[in-house]
Amino acid sequence: MYRFLLTRQWVILTLISLLLIPTMIRLGFWQKHRYEERSARNALVAQALDAKPVPVERVTEPGHAVTRKERYHTVTATGTFDTAHEVVVRRRTNDDDEVGYHVLTPFVLADGKVLLVNRGWISSDGPSQTAFPKVPAPPGGRVTIQGRLMPDETTAASGIKDLKGLPDRQIMLINSEEQARRLGEQVLGGYIQQTAPEPKGDTPEQISDPGKEDAPLNYAYMIQWWLFAAGVPYGWFVLVRREARAREEAAKEEPAARAEPAAAV
Predict the structure, then answer these.
(1) Considering the entire predicted model, what is its pTM?
(2) Which phi and psi (to 5°) does residue 94 adopt?
(3) Can you tell me whether residue 89 is helix, strand or coil?
(4) Which end of the chain is more exposed for a tag (fewer CB within 10 A), N or C?
C-alpha cells in the first residue's frame, strides 16, 4: 500500500520535509537569541535611565570607551559652551523622520577638559547644505547641564559612512578621539545627548528617550517557527494517509469495473 513512497515525487517531498524541520528549529532558536538579546538591551536601558544622575567625570575620561552598561546613564556637568568650535552632524533625522543636522557643541569643564554635547536636531532647510547652518545659541556663561551618556559612533555600529571632504564644521560621526585631535584638547570619551536645561523655543529639538525594542515579537516568532517545525511531519503524515486511502479505493474499484462488462453479457 505504501510503495508509492518510493516514487520520485514522494521521495522529493519527503526529503524537503526532512530539510524543513531542522531549518525551522534553527530559525526558532535564532528568534530566541534575538528575544534574549533585545530583552537584555531593554533591561540595561531601563536601568540606566532610572539610575540617579552622577557627575560625568565619574563615568568617563579622555580615551575611555563607553560600555553597554554605561550607555544612556544620566550624567551632569558644569562648565561653558564653546560655540566657536561647534560642528553639525549631517544626515540625522528627528522623530518625524525629517532629515537635518545634530548640533555638537564642545562643553568646557572647570579643569579644562572637554565634553561633547549633542544639543539636538535642527532642520537642514536652506539654500545649500555646504554652508554652515544657522544654529540656535546655547545658554551663555557657566551652566550645569544634564544628558544621556553615549559611546563614540562608528561606521560598523551605525552603518553611516565617515565621508571625507565635507564642508567646514560638518561631520558624519560623533567620535571623541577625532574631536580631540581637531580641538587640540583633552576630550572625555563618548558624548552626551542633552536633556536639560530645555532649549528656548524648543530648538534644537532634543533627542527623545530610547524606545524599547519589540522583544515579545521575537518570542512570538520563536513559537511560530517551532510550531511550523512540528506541523511539517504531521502534514506529511496526513498527505501519506490521504494518498494511501485514495490508492486503496482505486484498487477496490478496479475489479468491479472489470466485472461489469461480463455481467452485461
Answers:
(1) 0.72
(2) -100, -170
(3) strand
(4) C
